[in-house]
Design brief:
This protein has a single domain, classed as Metallo-dependent phosphatases (Purple Acid Phosphatase, chain A, domain 2, 4-Layer Sandwich), CATH 3.60.21. It has a 6-stranded mixed β-sheet with strand order 5-6-9-12-14-13, with no helix packed on it. It has a 5-stranded mixed β-sheet with strand order 4-3-2-1-15, with no helix packed on it. It has 3 helices and 15 strands. The radius of gyration is 15 Å and the shape is globular. Helix content is about 15%, strand content about 30%. By secondary structure, the protein is α/β, with parallel strands linked by helices. Strand 7 and strand 8 (about 105) form a beta hairpin.
């Protein structure tokens, strides 16, 4: 199974041309810039038209309009995951969004990450785990310690995310492949290419 991963396109999705072929395309959030309904609709229309067998996407912190969205009528090959999962060809995908909702001084994320099933093969979040492809110049880390603990415990085959634009890349750790596929730079211009993986069924 070939998986094409992208993230943080921030309204620039139509600038992506000649993307590699794959079985499944995964977008790990921040497909809008200002979080408006029309931005999201344009992205979803673009996504629906792509020639991949399955398209999976989640919401990032810019995608405010998706907070209580009810996406009925999507094509059967397009899957919006929000604290939910789907199994394709025996591979379990699970998506957890990142909405900026604060409880006191803390970002409310525990409730999202606690729901991740133990049998997840491909975990999709917007925020990285702490210390893994999550820093700017190795000084400030934007990852989640709660998420790191969860991933360390369930050990998915892959963890796909974005959020930190300057930390684009892929690494392996404890048998898990981690990928930050943020495609835009800090000016929200497309700077990188989607990342392609092949996994055994």
């Amino acid at each position: 199974m070939k998986i094409l991963h992208l993230s943080d396109t921030h309204g620039k999705h139509r600038e992506l041309t000649d993307m590699p072929s794959a079985d499944i395309l995964v977008h790990s959030g921040d497909f809008t810039l200002a979080g408006g309904d029309m931005e999201a609709l344009d992205f979803i229309e673009w996504l629906c038209d792509l020639p991949y067998r399955h398209k999976i996407f989640i919401a990032g912190n810019h995608d405010d309009c998706m907070l209580d969205a009810s996406l009925e009528g999507l094509p059967k090959d397009v899957h919006y995951l929000s604290d939910s999962g789907i199994t394709i060809d025996g591979i379990s995908f699970y998506g957890a969004p990142m909405f900026v909702v604060f409880d006191g001084e803390e970002l409310k994320e525990v409730e999202h990450y606690e729901q991740i099933p133990d049998n997840t093969d491909i975990l999709i979040t917007h925020r990285p785990p702490l210390g893994i492809l999550d820093s700017i110049d190795d000084h400030i880390h934007y990852g989640s310690s709660i998420l790191l603990d969860k991933v360390s415990n369930i050990k998915p085959r892959m963890h796909l995310f974005g959020h930190v634009h300057s930390a684009y890349g892929t690494i392996g750790w404890k048998g898990i492949t981690f990928c930050n596929a943020s495609l835009t730079d800090w000016k929200y211009d497309i700077q990188y290419s989607p990342q392609l993986f092949e996994i055994k069924l």
